[in-house]
Automatic annotation (TrEMBL):
UniProt cross-references to InterPro entries, sorted A to Z: HTH_HxlR, WH-like_DNA-bd_sf, WH_DNA-bd_sf
Region listing for Disordered, in residue ranges: 129-149
PANTHER family: HTH-TYPE TRANSCRIPTIONAL REGULATOR YODB (PTHR33204:SF37), TRANSCRIPTIONAL REGULATOR, MARR FAMILY (PTHR33204)
Keywords: DNA-binding, Transcription, Transcription regulation
Alphabetized Pfam families for the sequence: HxlR
Protein name, entry field: Transcriptional regulator
Domain of life: Bacteria
Record carries keyword Secreted: no
GO terms assigned for molecular function: DNA binding
UniProt domain HTH hxlR-type: residue ranges: 25-128
Keyword Transmembrane helix attributed: no
Amino acid sequence: MLEAQGNQDKSLLGAAGKHGDGGLCTEPDAAVTRVFELLGKRWTGLLIAALMGGPGHFTELKRAVPGISERMLSDRLSELVAEGLVSRHVQEGPPLRVSYRLTRAGEELRPALTALSSWAEANLDGAAGRCPEEFHAPPARKPPAEPDA
């Protein structure tokens, strides 16, 4: 089993070279390089993760990914649409609304993102536990209490 895993790792990572200390060093193959070129961009993974819960409108996505500017959100969504990971749907208005949802290819990232999330919780400080506060929806406002008669 371990030998099979090692062979799988070699095929994912590409050709192996030698370190001076006798350890193996691998050069990532084109597929690994390409996936990290795309998903390694700031905000991209967070947008895909936000869309894992279902479709979202621009303002909902901006709220779901704190700190992203409108310009960057627009750029990242355009890139994801061009790559075929996200589809854009225009809902005629008024008001005209645009929603975004993962395509089948985007949905196929779920197991990889789940595995990365599990790894992060086990290995990165501050990654375990509940959702960071900035990702929570604002609390619902309570109606004003009626005065006692």
